[in-house]
Amino acid sequence: ELDEKRYESMTNPDKYKELDIIKVLKRGEALLILANLILSSFQKRMGQNIGVKPGDEMRAAIDIAQEKGIPFELVDRSIKVTLNRAWAKNSFWGKCKLLAALISSAFSKEEISEEQIESLKKENELDSMMGELSEYLPTVKEVLIDERDRYLAAHIWECKNFYGEKAKSVTAVLGAGHLPGVQKHLEAIAAGSENTDTTEISNVPPKGIGSKIIGWTIPAIIVALIALGFYVGGKKMGGQFVGSWIIWNGLLAAIGTLIAAGHPLTILIAFLGAPITSLCPLVGVGFLTGIVQALVKKPKVRDMETLADDAETLKGFYSNRITRVLLVFVLSSLGSSIGTFAAGATIVKELTQKITALFG
Known about the structure:
Layout: H1 4-11, H2 21-26, H3 30-50, H4 56-67, H5 79-88, H6 92-106, H7 114-120, H8 123-136, H9 138-163, H10 179-191, H11 209-259, H12 264-277, H13 285-296, H14 301-305, H15 307-310, H16 314-319, H17 321-359
Helix pairs in contact: 3-6, 3-17, 5-9, 8-9, 9-10, 11-12, 11-17, 12-13, 13-17
């Protein structure tokens, strides 16, 4: 149950030392890197409680296979594809809940005992946990569990076909959460009711025309409402609407950057940039604030060397310059998004009152 990237991380634990945060921002991978760090730190904390490192079972299986000259295959879907699909397929509210879950898990101090982990392997406990995940984040459960069950089963089956008679048996090393689903899909493939084509779930779904239209529709509505304010209430009302837009959007983006302990210049850029970038879906304020933060507080070699360890604690997240750039990116973007809806609601309320007064 590994993909190339996670296998590389396992065999090269120092890979984060080569991280170029500017390139990460330019490629739009800031959220992906942040999610990876949080998930890795969560697994590491769980492992520390029971004296096991994340991926030890996979590492042991690979070591034994190599010692005995047994070929092994990495049959999991790319973590990049999985996380990007989980993000792309979620609604705006779902994305907010996902971000909240990631951030809360990053800074949670709850300790999980070995007994609790063992109890989760029991079928009824596992079903209960999956049910809770499905209720809270149904799309995440679908992408992280259901789709990967299908992907894993298909590639395990293909291993059997690839090696043919050379392989008397195929041993799969999987996490407990995937066992029921993978078994179900393997049985379906064996019965001929399911094939091994995973093309559909192996790529990030492209943005549909609807998403692109919505991306431009909200800014167009805001501009139209402000223009209507000038038409109905003259310069005074139009100016108030422009002011509301700048204050709500800029202020909340700046507050988000402040919470992330951004540099004063970064906070200023958040305030000035958010009202503009929110009207242009081509670039987000998080990109601007992230770049500025990375330039004025350049990550040092130490930040790269201690990145994985620093991601385990709240103090580490704020002291490490790389994770602080990621926090600035996320929290300034979140603040700007909230500001967009708050400003829109304020403008609609005032415009409605004005029109009612005119025609009432």
